[in-house]
Amino acid sequence: MQNPYSTPQFESKVCPPEQLAERLGQLPRPLVFTNGCFDILHRGHVTYLAQAAALGASLIVAINTDASVKRQGKGDDRPINPQDNRAAVLAALESVALVTWFDDDTPAALIEAVKPDVLVKGGDWPVDKIVGAAETLARGGEVHSIPFLFSTSTTATLNKIRESAGGA
């Protein structure tokens, strides 16, 4: 009898960077790549990721490590969710094919390792400011800045929580 409490299948979509080369060859192309903290997943994130996934056959999401998030200056308590939890939640999304991570301040080296066919960031990033855009375009790939459909942000959510807690 199969154990009904076995590890969920989505956990297999979490891929350490050192295994990325091997795993990339198993994914259908075109490969779409995006990155971010994805600290507290919200409607804006999941909409954006579904739109990004629609631009190719496999969406690869690279998240900042906890140390990389801290260096971004988003607050001493960020990330709220540790890297392993953020990776697992993203992997559970149908639109996501693979989740990996990077510890640098930018994903430039990881983008060059993946060599995506399509590079995507959210609408707050103009194409000419997206890390890896020039290299992706030079390889004949596409770069997209997807406009936000919903006015949501992790920082705004945390500010609302903090304000509510202060008034209690």
Automatic annotation (TrEMBL):
SUPFAM superfamilies for this protein: Nucleotidylyl transferase (SSF52374)
Catalytic activity of the protein: D-glycero-beta-D-manno-heptose 1-phosphate + ATP + H(+) = ADP-D-glycero-beta-D-manno-heptose + diphosphate
Keyword Nucleotide-binding: yes
GO MF: hydrolase activity; nucleotidyltransferase activity
Top-rank EC class of the record's enzyme: transferase
Pfam families listed in its UniProt record: CTP_transf_like (PF01467)
Stretches assigned to the Cytidyltransferase-like domain: 33-128
Keywords: ATP-binding, Carbohydrate metabolism, Hydrolase, Nucleotide-binding, Nucleotidyltransferase, Transferase
Enzyme Commission number, as recorded: 2.7.7.70
Name under which the protein is recorded: D-glycero-beta-D-manno-heptose 1-phosphate adenylyltransferase
Species assigned in the record: Crenobacter oryzisoli
Gene this chain is encoded by: rfaE2
